[in-house]
Amino acid sequence: MAEHSGTGPGRTIPARATLGSVAARAGVSKQTVSNVINSPHMVREDTAAKVLAAIDELGYRPHRAAQQLRTRRSRVFALRVQNRFPDAVFDRFLHALTGAAGALDYRIMLYTADDDAGEITAYDELLDRWDIDGFVLTGTHPGDTRTAHLSRVGVPCVTFGRPWDDSGHHPWVDVDGAAGTRAATEHLVRQGHRRIGFLGWPDGSGVGGDRLSGWANAIRDAGLDLLPPSRAVNDAEQGRSAAAELIDRTHPTAIVCASDVLALGAISEITARGMNVGADVAVIGFDDTDISAVAGLSSLAQPLVDVAAHCARLLATLVENPSDSRPEQVLLEPQLVIRSSSAPVRR
Amino acid sequence: MAEHSGTGPGRTIPARATLGSVAARAGVSKQTVSNVINSPHMVREDTAAKVLAAIDELGYRPHRAAQQLRTRRSRVFALRVQNRFPDAVFDRFLHALTGAAGALDYRIMLYTADDDAGEITAYDELLDRWDIDGFVLTGTHPGDTRTAHLSRVGVPCVTFGRPWDDSGHHPWVDVDGAAGTRAATEHLVRQGHRRIGFLGWPDGSGVGGDRLSGWANAIRDAGLDLLPPSRAVNDAEQGRSAAAELIDRTHPTAIVCASDVLALGAISEITARGMNVGADVAVIGFDDTDISAVAGLSSLAQPLVDVAAHCARLLATLVENPSDSRPEQVLLEPQLVIRSSSAPVRR
DNA sequence: CTGTTAGCGCCTTCAT
DNA sequence: ATGAAGGCGCTAACAG
Fold first, then answer.
1. Is the pLDDT confidence value at B165 over 50?
2. Taking CB atoms and an 8 Å limit, are A98 and B92 in contact across chains?
3. Which of B18, B39, B62 is the last residue of a domain?
């Protein structure tokens, strides 16, 4: 633990470099060093060079806590972790977000909450004690009060997910589920399918309605029969029952599903009936999770790296330009990944 | 943004409470307030009561950056996010860890790195600028240099995963993979199986060898034939080929797998041969991921909540008692979750 | 363009 | 048991 900066034997472990030590080394004042870092335009070139050299030699890095104490900015974004993120894409998003934020020199701090109310309580502590600069919110849903609360206290936030009721004006990034199911449906039409069903979630989830609508509109545009969809909660067993019901009722040759889990339920049912997935009944899932790779399931991949990059960028912009124009909103298209479950219709 | 603490109309929004404002309110000095919080034993009861009342009325919370600037402690643990955590249990671990750390008043901050070298570079910045109190490391592997580095700089760390070569003495928490595959094997033996194969990963992963050994020892203890195992990288297609090879070569009635993904590959192969999973060939996976729930796959659930709680506890202990006795090491048993893929042997 | 002064909120040291 | 002074490292405001 002992540090020494002298010229004793062995390697010299530099004591912590501070603004002051850099200033002394460069023969200028602390303020000038600070200016070189924070307002480089207002310092003469030769002075800057001297200072930068000193910074380099000493391996100086500004101390966050000191900066934060002075500026009330932490360069930290907070993100809630849930035990089960909708669509099981959380870990990939998290990785991308940490990277994207890091590229802008922000860090991600995590918190947990049991529900929206608990989350709002958490904000207070996070803001009061940690000076969190902004929040990345996921899992937006109808009746969501979180963004309204944050906007009331004047704290920047961005949501991964559209606001499903027009609660205020904050920037958001989302994946266009409708475009995804439309692409899936059009792909199936091109494969020769004419009876294309939809296996979705119960009403009221926003995301579910979005994904359903893309299928429905594509069916209408193609002039096909709009087979009444079947619905189940996001569980393979429930999905299997719902698929059974859908098949009995509408005899589809292809099924577009709201999620990979539901799709796997459909696959189980199709297989159990002695039919061939792909050849007899095509299936397309959503989210391109491990499940789809493993099951040969065609699916829609969310562009999570881009989502994360936009989230970080929008939030950083908001933090750094508090009175920026109107909030930007980004809608990205998922990409159809074709596997064996969506073969051409059997002739 | 404007705050006022007067008694004007409307709700009073308290300006930020500080040690000073609490002291004024309670009619004591700042130092006494600090003592009430940090050294309650050395302050008279009535004084403490007064101060606590003031803290409560003002909603005072110590400001982390100020504490940190003074104490060089951040109350933050850092954790690396990888895009693919081994065994796809990362998000559940993360949630549990955030909660467990929060209960001890620590927060989790994330960082990324491309490899071990990049991670070690990241340490420097994290320590220098953020005063990170400790690191939770995952994905330990043979030849891991990270813990040695941290121990050299004297920074507390705990690993989720054993050190696979005896690199130093740090606390760790791990799940006993051998106990898991042993439990799976013994369960199959009780079901009447006599030819129980193993589908594992290629050599050299530590975790893979651990899981294999539990199966092998259980087989020996039961006096059964030790069918030479088959191996594949953690991919369903590879797993399927390896399962085919295993079945052709050893004709097992049950297969213990190193992961759910491999198990799903085995299931595909069994199904494709027109055999029944469970009745003809039983299969047991590892990790109890979404895949197993969806596929009716018996599997071994890792006690991630306990793992996380121990990680947080060990790290906090290390931070708060720098010269504690020898590092504690915790090995937890996974729990066998029985589903339809491990039915009794067909008579 | 550069230097000086002051203070963010807290805790450590010393005095009372 | 309580209070006063000082400083952690940095930057805002002003002076030169």
1. yes
2. no
3. B62
Residue A86 sits in the same domain as residue A124: yes
Name which of B16, B91, B271 is nearest A90 (Cβ-Cβ): B91
- Chain B partners within 8 Å of A153 (Cβ): none
For residues A182 and A297, membership in a common domain is answered with yes
| Residue A214 and residue A147 share a domain | no
Digit-coded pLDDT (tens) for A13-36: 567 899 999 999 999 999 999 999
pLDDT tens digits, one per residue of A147-198 = 999 999 999 999 999 998 876 689 999 999 999 999 999 999 999 999 999 9
For B57-111, the DSSP string reads HHT----HHHHHHHHS---EEEEE--SS-GGG-HHHHHHHHHHHHHHTT-EEEEE
A209 with A279, same domain: the answer is: yes
Average pLDDT over all residues of chain B: 90
Q: What is the pLDDT of residues B254-270, one digit of tens each?
A: 999 999 989 989 998 99
Partner-chain residue, chosen from B69, B85, B92, that has the shortest CB–CB distance to A66: B69
Please tell me if residue B232 touches chain A, with a CB cutoff of 8 Å.
no
Q: Do B63 and A69 touch (CB under 8 A)?
A: yes
- What pLDDT score was predicted for residue B7? 31
Q: What is the DSSP letter of B149?
A: H
Rounded CA-CA distance A51/A18 in Å is 13
Q: Does residue B283 share a domain with residue B257?
A: yes
Is the domain of A204 the same as that of A283? yes
Please tell me the distance from the alpha carbon of residue A12 to that of residue B167, in angstroms, as a whole number: 26
Domain extent, residue B162, equals: 72-175+304-332
Mutate one of B79, B257, B294, B339 to test the A interface: name it (highest A CB count within 10 A): B294
| CA-to-C1' span, B26 to D15 (A) | 40
Using pLDDT thresholds of 50, 70 and 90, give the confidence band for residue A326: confident
Contact (CB, 8 A) for B294 and A264: yes
The Å distance, CA of A262 to C1' of C11, is 57
Query: Token pair of A145, please?
Result: 């009060």
Q: Tell me, what CATH number does B142's domain have? A: 3.40.50.2300
| A67 part of a folded domain | no
pLDDT digits (tens, 9 = 90+) for A277-323: 999 999 999 999 877 887 889 999 999 999 999 999 999 999 998 77
B10–chain A Cβ distance below 8 A for any pair? no
Q: Which two tokens stand for residue B92?
A: 């559940």
In a domain, A239, yes or no: yes
Residue B67, domain member (yes or no): no
Q: Do B242 and B126 fall within a single domain?
A: no
Angle in degrees, CA B70, B71, B72, rounded to 5: 100
Task: Give the closest of A102, A107, A129 to B64, CB-based.
Answer: A129
Q: A21, A110, A270, A275: best mutation site toward chain B, by most B Cβ within 10 Å?
A: A110
CATH number of residue B57's parent domain = 1.10.260.40
Give dist(CA B172, CA B156) in Å, integer: 11
DSSP A7: -
Number of domains in chain A: 3
Looking at residue B302, its pLDDT comes to 96
The answer to the question of residue A318 being in a domain is yes
Tokens of A160: 């991964």
Q: Do A291 and A310 belong to one domain?
A: no
**A340: how many CB neighbours lie within 10 A of its CB?**
14
Given CB atoms, is A100 within the 8 Å cutoff of chain B? Answer: no
